[in-house]
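Bumping with the actual sequence this time:
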Amino acid sequence: MYDPKSFDDLEVGDKVTLNKTVTEADGALYIAATGDFGPVHVDEAYAADTRFGKRLAPGIMVAGLCTSVLTAELVGTIGVSIEDRFWFTGPVFYGDTISFSVWIAEKVEENRTIIWEASATNETGLEVLKARATLKFPRRKPAA
């Protein structure tokens, strides 16, 4: 977990899958840290009148969980994010167990970047998140 992996350690097709139950505590900590007090996340009465019928976990929090799987389990901590794209394709409710699958889709030697993609599904198999993003890795240090 959180191993420093070099660009050379990574290959197209490398993949990890991890499950995470999204809890009320996750939401409360995220909301408190970011100030994202949108009523669909915090107000049960408000959320009941939306098309979802109940409160949603914040989408960007779920995206953050996805990037955590990326760095903790797949690519390590050396690369830095230079572009992130997330598509919120379904709702995530508190108590849902989400299965995050993250893989390396492309590796560009010239600029030492990795393009990673992800898909997250809930316990019924509904896709709730897609991602495509780019990490840049530092150049090798010259030999001394």
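The tokens above came from a reply further down the thread. Residues 4 and 132 are 22 Å apart (CA to CA).
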